[in-house]
Amino acid sequence: MSSGTPYTDKTPTPSVTYTAPTYREDPVDAKVKRKFRGKGASEYYDPCQDAANRSIQCLNRNFGDREMCSDYFQAYRDCKKKWIDERKEDRKKGTGFFAKS
């Protein structure tokens, strides 16, 4: 029988910290602007492609459950909004992406 001491589980419990996904590249930084300016007229360039790829990976990982990936979708939307807003502002000013080099 037992010696009278209760059993205690000594297995460490992992501490899990959730961090909402964000896009890696700033869609309006100098590196992205150089890439955008250097592309051909018929080439498509999306500075938010990284966020889009991670959204797809999340869907694949979670068997298409969109609720599980809502943070990834939001990160992509935030990236695209920042990118589009910057392009609109530059177009109004005639600077940035649309400036004559």
UniProtKB/TrEMBL annotation:
GO terms for biological process: mitochondrial respiratory chain complex assembly. Keywords: Disulfide bond, Mitochondrion. The keyword Mitochondrion applies. Residues 1-24 are annotated as: Disordered. Residues 1-20 have a biased composition (Polar residues). One of its GO terms (cellular component) is mitochondrial intermembrane space. It comes from the Eukaryota. The keyword Mitochondrion applies. Coiled coil: none annotated. This is Cytochrome c oxidase-assembly factor cox-23.
